[in-house]
Write a structure and sequence with these properties.
By secondary structure, the protein is mainly alpha-helical. It folds into two domains: 8-49; 62-166. It is built from six helices and two strands, in the order H-H-H-H-E-E-H-H. The protein has helices spanning 7-18, 23-30, 34-43, 51-84, 112-135, 141-165; strands at 90-96, 101-107. Strands 1-2 form a two-stranded antiparallel ribbon. Helix 1 (7-18) crosses helix 2. It is elongated and about 85 Å long.
Length: 172
């Protein structure tokens, strides 16, 4: 498309380039495609400084690493909250029926199907945490600590389920 551009448009591209604007910014300001901006500059022996682009990419990478770390910490808290539900009484409820009633009852322990759901959910979170941490190119000590804590909590929960499955009530 550079062939259809006017001399005034080419001059404007070169002027903006001389001011140090990036290729995409020149394209936005002039309404000319980024490819045409590159071609105009190349035809006039001008190049774009890529160091600013590299710095911006590195900054974005650091920002994404920080966001993944915050997400990992939040997921860890949520999963541990789920696992903590295994240790105490558990409320079951029923809502509806023809009279649209609500009933609830507190059980001494979490029913087996709910335990399984909680453990499965926590295990999925653990898998996601692992993937988040693996995504980071550099080791993140905090994230590793989160995973270690979560792995220990999963092991405790699994031990509790195994112990429950081996109770004398099963023998009778």
């Amino acid at each position: 498309m550079a062939g259809k551009l006017t001399d005034a448009q080419r001059d404007e591209v070169l002027r903006l380039h001389a001011e140090g604007l990036a290729r995409n910014e020149i394209a936005r300001q002039t309404g000319i495609s980024a490819g045409s901006v590159s071609n105009i500059c190349a035809d006039n022996d001008r190049a774009f400084d890529r160091s600013a682009t590299k710095s911006a990419q590195e900054a974005r990478s650091v920002d994404l690493t920080e966001r993944r770390q915050r997400l990992a910490e939040r997921l860890d808290v949520a999963a541990n909250d789920m696992l903590d539900m295994l240790d105490g009484p558990f409320t079951v409820y029923n809502f509806g029926g023809k009279d649209n009633t609500f009933n609830s009852q507190e059980l001494d322990s979490v029913p087996v199907d709910a335990r399984r759901t909680i453990i499965t959910s926590a295990a999925i979170v653990f898998d996601k945490l692992t993937r988040i941490v693996e995504k980071d190119a550099s080791p993140v000590d905090g994230a590793a600590g989160v995973l270690d804590t979560f792995a220990a909590a999963l092991e405790l929960a699994a031990d509790a389920i195994r112990a429950e499955d081996e109770t004398p009530a099963d023998a009778g």
